[in-house]
Please model this.
Amino acid sequence: MNIAVIIASYNASSTIFRAVSSALNQEEVVEVIVVDDASMDDTVTVARAADDLSGRLKVLQLAENRGCSHARNVAIENSSAPYIAVLDSDDFFLPNRFKVFENLTNWDLVADNICFVPEHGFGDRTELNIQQFDPSFTKISLEDFITSNISRMFRPKAELGFLKPVMRRQFLDDHAVRYIEGVNFGEDYDLYSRCLGHGARFYVTNQCGYVAIERTNSLSSTPKTHAHLVLVQIDDALIEMPNLQSQDIKAIGRHREHSARKYRLRTVLDIKKGRGLRTALKKMLTSPVHFIEISTDILMDKASAILPKRNGSSDTRQLRYLLNSNRSAQTQTVSLDAR
Model:
C-alpha cells in the first residue's frame, strides 16, 4: 500500500514538525505533501526541518490564504500515490498506523479510531497510553454515516465525520470528488457523504491509529453560526444526488433539520448578544413553533453545560475515543517526539 499523506497547514509552527515526522515514520507512506495556506509564522521552515532526507517530503507555500479545502485539493493534485490519507497539522499518526489496513480488500475508504487528547491535558508529554482494540472492520452505509453526525444531548461527540480515512485515489478521480472550495467547516462530512452517495465501500475499525488534539478555540469545537447554515446547504446538495435510497434521503433530511435548528438557535443568541434580549425575543416571536423550539434548545444547552456527559469525565487529561468498543482492549505506551 503506497500512501500520500496530505497536510493543510496555517500558522502551525508549534505542531507541524510532530505531524510531518509521524507521517514520514510510516513505512507505507511514499509522499508527504504539506500545503501551507499563507501562514504568518514560520510553519514552512519548521515543516522542512522535519524532512528525513528520504525524498518523500514536499512543502508548497500558497501566496494567498484560501482555506483548508483549497489547500487539501492542491495537495491532492500535487501527489500521485494510489491512496490518500489526510492529516491535520496539529494532529499526528501513531506508529504503524496503516498496518491494520493491509489485509482488507475491496474498499474505497477505510478509517480507524481516533484518540482525542485535550490540548491543555497533553502539554509536552512524550508518552501516551493508547488503547488498541480488536482490529475487525465494519462496513458503513450512507444512512449510517449521516445518522451518526446528528449529535445527541449529554453525550460526547461521536460523529463519523471526524474520521480521517485512507481514500482510494481512483475512486475520487472516477467520480470527480474533491473538497468544495470555500467550505472550511463540514468539508469532511460533505466529501465522505458524496463518496458514499456514489457507492463507495467505506469500512471502519475500532483500532486506534490517529491522535487528534482538541483545542477549545477550534472551529469544530465551537462552530460559528454561519457554519450551521453551510451544513444545511451541503445537505441540500446531497439530497439532489441521483440513485439515493429512500432511507438515505430521510437521514439527510433529519441532519438538515438538525443543522437548521442549530442555525436558528445561534442566530437568536447572536442577536441577543449584539442587540439585546428584547430584539432577540422579537425574532423568536415571529414564529410560535420556532419560539418553543429555541426556548427548549436554550434550556437544553444550559443543562448540557452543567450536567456531565455520559461516558465523559471532568478530568481534562483523559483520552477519549471516537468509536466506542465493547471488545477487550490492550493498552500500549506510545513514545513521541517531544518537539
In short: The chain has eleven helices and twelve strands. Residues 310-316 have pLDDT under 50 and may be disordered. Residues 225-306 form one domain.
